[in-house]
């Protein structure tokens, strides 16, 4: 809902009343920019947030089954070290 509010604010608050053609071009441009922003943010979420959440979830699962201790959780939550396979080790089972 917040993302649509940004688009509504731009269309109805930022684009001036004026000739029809100018308004149409500005509305089309603002929608294209909005679509690009949403796509960029969703790719950021996919590349940064999802792997970090999967890594933390896998670590908490290891703690719950007794393979690891809960004390090392902070060393796992380094998003720069997150791999594309969500931090799972080679040969490990993938989360489904």
The number of strands is 0
What is the succession of H and E elements?
A: HHH
- The secondary-structure class comes to mainly alpha
Q: Assembly state here?
A: single chain
The average pLDDT is: 75
Instruction: Name the shape in a single word.
Output: rod-shaped
Low-confidence stretches: 90-96
Percentage of residues in DSSP E strands:
under 5%
Distance between the termini: 29 Å
Number of domains: 1
Radius of gyration: 22 Å
Instruction: Sketch the major β-sheet.
Output: none
Task: Considering the chains and any ligands shown, give keywords for the structure.
single chain, 3 helices, rod-shaped
In short:
This protein has 3 helices and no strands. The protein has 96 residues and is mainly α.
Structural notes for this entry:
With 96 residues, this protein is mainly α. It has one domain (2-81). The chain has 3 helices and no strands. The chain has helices spanning 2-14, 20-64, 73-76. Helix 1 packs antiparallel against helix 2. The longest helix has 45 residues, at 20-64. It is rod-shaped. Mean pLDDT is 75; it is low at 90-96.
């Amino acid at each position: 809902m917040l993302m649509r509010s940004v688009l509504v604010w731009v269309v109805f608050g930022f684009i001036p009343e004026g000739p029809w053609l100018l308004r149409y071009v500005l509305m089309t441009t603002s929608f294209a920019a909005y679509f690009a922003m949403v796509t960029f943010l969703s790719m950021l979420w996919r590349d940064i947030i999802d792997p970090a959440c999967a890594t933390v979830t896998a670590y908490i699962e290891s703690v719950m089954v007794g393979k690891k201790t809960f004390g090392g959780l902070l060393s796992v939550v380094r998003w720069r070290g997150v791999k594309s396979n969500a931090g799972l080790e080679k040969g490990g089972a993938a989360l489904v």
